[in-house]
Amino acid sequence: MQTSGSSLPVLVAGGGIGGLAAALALVRRGFAVQVLEQAPEIGEIGAGIQLGPNAFAAFDALGVGEKARSRAVYTDEMLMHDALDETLVGRIPTDEGFRQRFGNPYAVIHRADVHLSLLEGTQETGRIGFHTSTRVERIEQDETGVTVYDQHGRAYRGQALVGADGVKSVVREQYVGDPPRVSGHVVYRAVVDRQDFPENLRWNAASIWVGPNCHLVHYPLRGGEQYNVVVTFHSRQQEEWGVTEGSAAEVQSYFQGICPRARQLIELPRSWKRWATADRDPIGTWTFGRVTLLGDAAHPTLQYLAQGACMALEDAVTLGAALRVHDNDFSRAFALYQRSRVARTARIVLSAREMGRIFHAHGVERLVRNGLWKGRDAERFYDAMEWLYGWKPEACLADEPENR
Ligand SMILES: Cc1cc2nc3c(=O)[nH]c(=O)nc-3n(C[C@H](O)[C@H](O)[C@H](O)COP(=O)(O)OP(=O)(O)OC[C@H]3O[C@@H](n4cnc5c(N)ncnc54)[C@H](O)[C@@H]3O)c2cc1C
């Protein structure tokens, strides 16, 4: 399939972080792009996100590094405390030494600010069109391109399609059709103004309190004017994958026995959003002719490594690099992109499951967890994180002779 030279645009399903990043990568390869988004507006939910150095390397490669940097909060450390007795379980500096080691910072940022940085980048290109209130429902392929049908039966024609339509991807459903693994873990998220946030937790850190079958996360946003609060617990009921309005009473009914300092976090939000989370088992094939998957559509993960969005950004950069190597031939580029991403993203999915177990340990396992990192210095932590945070755009393709 030699598609360079086609005058058709490339279609992207989904205008989230992954879809916008993909659109930017495609424009940088010279394509016109049409983004199809089901929501009435291109935007993001009100919540925070952590970004590893790999995300900043990807932002730079997509040409929006300065925009994202200007909106981020740079933390001094990552902290893990035992939520029962306040023991400090782990402390990883993310200061100058961390930045030197990985060439980029660790940061926390409002999701809307990540999204806005990418959106501004797409608008500046003048080559990316947006169709909102457009839900992709069906895809057909032929010799010269793809046709995507929306909920009204309208057809969109492109030379290829990137399915960046998130955890419940319709594109994945059509080509893979695999079931989600509903975790039974429920996440509540809220953003709290500084004046309402307890002074004894106003740390410039990505902080986690780990407890039996639960954990609580908090970190500053927007120059410390707001704080992101995320609490997670193992639900007592049968869960179905999805997002609903939360109830403070439900949150209060969990977290028994948690120390008073951490418990303050669940008293704060005036409104909560509730996520019943799921992931999927990693798959080795996510490219189907002129269609490929990207971001959560390709490798939905539990959030315990704080890397889902970072992976979507890396995916986009890698897709662009694969198109460069194969001179915009989608068939070969999609195959190379997939080969370059499957193992890395599967490692994220599988490691996140393990991390959930470590976070939520109880009984003797909790004691093992609390001793795991005793006396470990920064460099040893950094060595362990090298595979993740040491990702570089210039080495993002599969290590094959023709890509060196
Ligand atoms: C509680 C929680 C905390 C997290 N924390 C972090 C973190 O700290 N760091 C991190 O890197 N990641 C984090 N993540 C993961 C991150 O949010 C996701 O990995 C990231 O948003 C994936 O981006 P995406 O563009 O692939 O999917 P999405 O953000 O889901 O975007 C998909 C887009 O596609 C649209 N869409 C869906 N279906 C269709 C359709 N059929 N047709 C057209 N449009 C469609 C949706 O409306 C949406 O705009 C967290 C996730 C959760 C749940």
Q: Can you walk me through this structure?
A:
It is built from twelve helices and 20 strands. It has 404 residues and is of the alpha+beta class. It has a domain at 10-74 and 110-179 and 284-361: FAD/NAD(P)-binding domain. The strands form four sheets. An eight-stranded mixed β-sheet has the order 6-5-14-15-16-13-18-17, with helices on both faces. Strand 5 and strand 6 form a beta hairpin. The two termini are 23 Å apart. The relative contact order is 0.18. The model has no long low-confidence stretch (mean pLDDT 95). Residues 13-19, 36-39, 49-50, 135-136, 164-167, 170, 187, 189, 230, 275, 295-297, 303, 306-310, 312 line the site of flavin-adenine dinucleotide.
**CATH top level of the domain at 10-74 and 110-179 and 284-361?**
Alpha Beta
The count of helical stretches stands at 12
- Give me the CATH superfamily of the domain at 10-74 and 110-179 and 284-361: FAD/NAD(P)-binding domain
Radius of gyration using CA atoms only:
21 Å
For the termini, the CA-CA separation is 23 Å
Chemical compounds bound to the protein: flavin-adenine dinucleotide
DSSP summary, beta strand count = 20
